[in-house]
Amino acid sequence: MQIIIFGPPGAGKGTQAKKIAEEYEIPHLSTGEIFRSAIKNETPLGKKVKSILDAGDLVPDQTVVDLVEEELKKDKYEDGYILDGFPRTVPQAEAFDEILDSNGKTLDAFLVLEVPEQELVDRILSRGEGRSDDTEEGIKNRLEVYEKETAPVLNYYKEQGKVNAIDGVGSIDEIFSRIKDALEK
Ligand code: ADP
Q1: Which residues are paired to 81 by β-bridges?
Q2: Can you give the pTM of this predicted structure?
Q3: What is the mean pLDDT of residues 130-159?
């Protein structure tokens, strides 16, 4: 089962992706987590992307696509996965379609978590994960980048008839049960 979880920063993608991974026994692939871990370990990738993440900008498409393509070659992704944070631009979505095609797979679900903008800012500021991009400036820029670069990805998948909108307001378990209903219907 190949699933994408999508939505603005602060929508709860990471939290719900972990629950989906557990419930359906598929690995969780988060591009943001890969980048944060590369930064922490000071790898060449980490050095390349640190200032981009700190500013809340996007890592160049080719870098992300190459990374995801390589990662998905690992055996653990063979029976499916949940993608979180990717694709984040239309060129990434097009590249991902080609990756799926060349692996003989299709996308089973594209889940969009819908949360009002003010709640997003409040959640990020109060989650206190200590992420270096969780400053007021960083959040503002990530929301702008989301509107401009990432929101069009939604239309891309709407045209494919794959979008499942999920109300992202409520408790973690309430939201998760909406997701399960959507995946199992
Ligand atoms: P959030 O959804 O809260 O912004 P993520 O962990 O998904 O958090 O992403 C954190 C940062 O990692 C992004 O602001 C961006 O700089 C970078 N990033 C993650 N995924 C991608 C991607 N697919 N394309 C470009 N940049 C990405």
Answers
A1: 2
A2: 0.95
A3: 94
